[in-house]
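4.2 Preliminary Data

To establish feasibility before requesting continued support, the project team ran the inverse folding procedure on a target of 469 residues. The structure was first converted into the token representation described in Section 3, and no sequence information of any kind was made available to the design step. The complete token record follows.
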């Protein structure tokens, strides 16, 4: 084993593929927005439909080869199922259970959602909305997830199909013919459920991540009346790769609160609320004098068909060459996914872990608590949000640099972090470093480095950090 491994070329990491997909979404929306206005007898802007339809159009592009055929047909679903194939019963059921899980665990009622909109000029919606409220950004509300809606506008789908017949190519016609009912039969009723208050142009919506199509519809409707949309950085990756954030993204928002960098006129460096939330949980554990019993915590990122072989090879090399006298207690942490409320040890079964000497975390507890028990954190794939969280906490962390298309903003910092041995070109370099150094002595030199502090200011908002929080 050489220690020289590379992640397979994944479409989501290919700048050309990602940029072309975003351009295609914009092109599709420029065609679809007058069609959607005609179908629903409204006169909304192209930006309105970009906000409402972008996520669904990504799914359509994944299925474009299938949806370009005249015999394409899928069941009429309430919301999109993101897959490359026609959704089958198992996939539809799983998607619906995930949707209902979000509704009953995280959602709120329509009445509460409507009242929050009516009563507040600054409204924080979705993931980390209560963290935003805690920091004085605005008033938090959970999302509303509509369900069990009676069928409205019977016959609208047939009229929509008739409107597109003979006028557009088969892909466009199939997009319209197979729209989820949220965008067609139930669209008008949901739109009516969003109250427009006095002086709507004075309202600002703050969000980090939304999971309900109703939330996007709310933002889209209000921006038509002059309301502003402020988006908050969700974690790592964005700003670190050359193709994110995209032109498409900037078209849908008015301001982007970043972790410290600024590359677009809409960017505004601000507090890293996700980092703050993590830091508070992590620091609470340290204040409880938790013993750091984990010698090495290995945190996994996305595991899929493109990364499995890479993860297998890098993990096998690490375990075969790591000084186990020095790092006796090694724990593996699988990544939390958006379709589950917790991660799963089964995700790592392909690694063939030696369970008598390696532990796999069950993923049920917050990562910050596990990290607080660890002497050093290792990432086999960068960029990574938890890598930034560890930097924010100034906790010893290392990673293998798999960012093959870094942004101009981050490239020089990567060079410095490589010189500091924080990030490594391959797993061989990382393991050699772990075996050679005393972690605390090495890390003390790292955090005293001026360029490391500069990286912290620009990529994890050191300058806005509340150290006493």
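Position-by-position output of the design step:
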């Amino acid at each position: 084993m050489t220690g020289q491994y590379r992640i397979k070329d994944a479409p989501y990491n290919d700048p050309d593929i990602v940029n072309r997909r975003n351009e295609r979404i914009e092109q599709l929306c420029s065609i679809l927005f007058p069609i959607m206005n005609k179908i629903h007898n409204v006169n909304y802007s192209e930006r309105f439909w970009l906000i409402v339809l972008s996520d669904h159009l990504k799914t359509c592009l994944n299925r474009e080869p299938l949806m370009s055929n005249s015999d394409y047909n899928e069941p009429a679903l309430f919301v999109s199922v993101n897959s490359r194939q026609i959704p089958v019963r198992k996939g539809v059921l799983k998607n619906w259970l995930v949707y209902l899980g979000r509704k009953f665990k995280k959602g709120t009622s329509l009445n509460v959602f409507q009242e929050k909109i009516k009563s507040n000029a600054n409204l924080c919606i979705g993931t980390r909305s209560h963290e935003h409220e805690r920091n004085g950004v605005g008033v938090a509300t959970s999302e509303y997830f509509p369900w069990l809606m009676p069928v409205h506008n019977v016959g609208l789908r047939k009229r929509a199909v008739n409107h597109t017949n003979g006028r557009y190519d088969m892909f466009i016609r199939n997009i319209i013919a197979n729209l989820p009912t949220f965008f067609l039969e139930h669209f008008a009723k949901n739109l009516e459920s969003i109250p427009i208050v006095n002086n709507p142009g004075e309202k600002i919506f703050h969000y980090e991540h939304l999971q309900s199509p109703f939330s996007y519809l709310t933002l889209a409707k209000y921006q038509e009346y002059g309301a502003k949309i402020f988006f908050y950085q969700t974690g790592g990756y964005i700003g670190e790769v050359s193709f994110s954030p995209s032109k498409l993204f900037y078209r849908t928002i008015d301001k982007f609160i970043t972790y410290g960098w600024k590359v677009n006129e809409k960017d505004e460096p601000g507090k890293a609320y996700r980092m703050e939330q993590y830091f508070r949980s992590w620091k609470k554990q340290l204040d409880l004098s938790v013993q750091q019993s984990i010698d090495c915590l290995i945190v996994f990122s996305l595991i899929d068909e493109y990364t499995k072989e890479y993860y297998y090879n890098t993990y096998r090399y690490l375990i075969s060459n790591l000084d186990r006298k020095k790092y006796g207690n090694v724990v593996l942490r699988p990544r939390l996914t958006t379709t589950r409320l917790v991660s799963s040890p089964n995700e790592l079964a392909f690694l063939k872990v030696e369970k008598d000497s390696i532990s796999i975390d069950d993923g049920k507890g917050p990562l910050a608590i596990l990290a607080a028990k660890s002497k050093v954190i290792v990432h086999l794939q960068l960029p990574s949000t938890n890598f930034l969280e560890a930097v924010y906490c100034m906790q010893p962390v290392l990673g293998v640099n798999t960012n093959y298309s870094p942004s101009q903003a981050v490239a020089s910092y990567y060079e410095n972090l490589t010189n500091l041995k924080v990030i490594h070109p391959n797993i061989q370099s990382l393991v050699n470093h772990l075996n050679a150094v005393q972690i605390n002595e090495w890390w003390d030199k790292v955090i005293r480095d001026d360029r490391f502090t500069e990286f912290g200011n620009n990529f994890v908002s050191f300058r806005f950090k509340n150290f006493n929080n």
